[in-house]
Amino acid sequence: MTAGKTVAAVDCGTNSIRLLIGAIEEDGALREITRENTIVRLGQGVDATGRLAPEAIERTREALAAYVDRMEAEGVSAVRMVATSATRDASNRDDFFGMTAELLGRIQDGAQAEVISGEEEADLSFTGATLDIDSDRGPFCVIDLGGGSTEFIVGTAAGEILGAYSTQMGCVRLTERILRSDPPTGEETSEARGYVDKQMAEAAETVPVAQAATFVGCAGTFTTLSALAQDLDSYDPERIHMSDIPFARMREVTGWLRSVTAKERAANPVVHPGRADVIGSGSVIVEQMMTAFEAHGAVSFVISEKDILDGIVAGLV
């Protein structure tokens, strides 16, 4: 793609929809124009009903329409949007994909949301999350903790994927299935730990975690945990990106999150109100990860603000 072109990537997950717009410079580098995140809870109830809730589709439509307006204002000429696999499996999926085609068609003919293969998702997520990490710290284990699923990808600094696996655990899914109390009870937490351990055992059969030297966490749960661990007064992406959070400090934060209500979490300026009711479940997932990774010598997470969006844009470039 030639210099001067402006491209966009959109990632629609279970809990949020996100946008990255970048312009290609003369030297081929990408200049970031904007990075936005909107909590839409597209996966609301889909685990139980098999359908996308009409109000969830409408929230997503409103957010995507605002993103398309921004793309038009910035002169975007190429766009790619990926969506959670739950949209493909929903019985009313045509309502969702038709909506995205109508909106994205304003930017590029034929563009609409697509559900990509697990292999491509792993490659894009790994590429994005490790863009700014010193190659000497490889091999890397990238953990993309989402609302409905969590991906584990181990790869080399050269980008070779050694193993990848998508588990059916995420902060929204765990909240709706198990951690229903606010704050969660000890019994719920114990049940959730067992569920997470089972999912991680399945991942370990495919992903060579023991080969990883650096563990990289990306997506909203991890970035919020970093902000809390650093006692930030406001959500600061520059201070969060590439932060190295020791497991001991992370456990202090995750323990606190489950000791307070969603309202109390939301009162903290770094916790997005739309994440406050589900990050308690995210804290359980992260705690069980730390216990598993410590067996392989891990002592901290590197937190990346970059993820699949950056991988998508790199592909467009």
TrEMBL record:
InterPro entries in the record: ATPase_NBD (IPR043129), GppA/Ppx_hydrolase (IPR050273), Ppx_GppA_N (IPR003695)
Domain Ppx/GppA phosphatase N-terminal, first and last residues per copy: 26-296
Gene3D superfamilies per record: 3.30.420.40, Exopolyphosphatase. Domain 2
GO molecular function, one term: pyrophosphatase activity
CDD domains per the UniProt record, alphabetical: ASKHA_NBD_MtPPX2-like
Pfam families: Ppx-GppA
Designated name of the protein: Ppx/GppA phosphatase family protein
Species name: Corynebacterium genitalium ATCC 33030
